[in-house]
Give the backbone structure.
Amino acid sequence: MEIIDLTTQNTRAIEQISTLILKEFGETGSNAWRTLEAARAEVTESLAPNRISRCAVAESGDVLGWIAGMPQYGGNVWELHPLIVRTDSRRRGIGRELISDFERQVDTRGGCTVLLGTDDENGRTTLGGTDLYPDVLQRLQSVRNRGSHPFEFYLRVGYHIVGVIPDANGFGKPDILMAKRVRR
């Protein structure tokens, strides 16, 4: 496996990633990308000069995973959006390697922190499916995983929960905010 820059010239990888987004996010019940055109637009946006767009490819050239991000707060913070690994390639360290590579990319660009949001649109955490008000921070402190929600993966690779946006995706569908410092 190799992690490479995704470029406009790599049309095969762009199509594979677009299909992967539609399939993998669709299986989680996410409403983020409902059509191949919307997924393709997401990938194309990630190719802008001020962004990071990297993919893990097998020796065959097939895409195993993809990570992208954009600068925020004058480049001090980079939003990781999104990270995806093919279902048949999970639990092999590919996601972990993509995250490490992304953090190195952010560091070389002078960024200090990586920020991400990990939505709970289908009640896979104790924050989903409930009214988080008025005790939002108390509920956040006791968040638990109910069904293989990715926030635990991010905890394992050094990220911290730094907040939550209640109802970000509709009532009872919060966005859990996570961050990690990559440079002082």
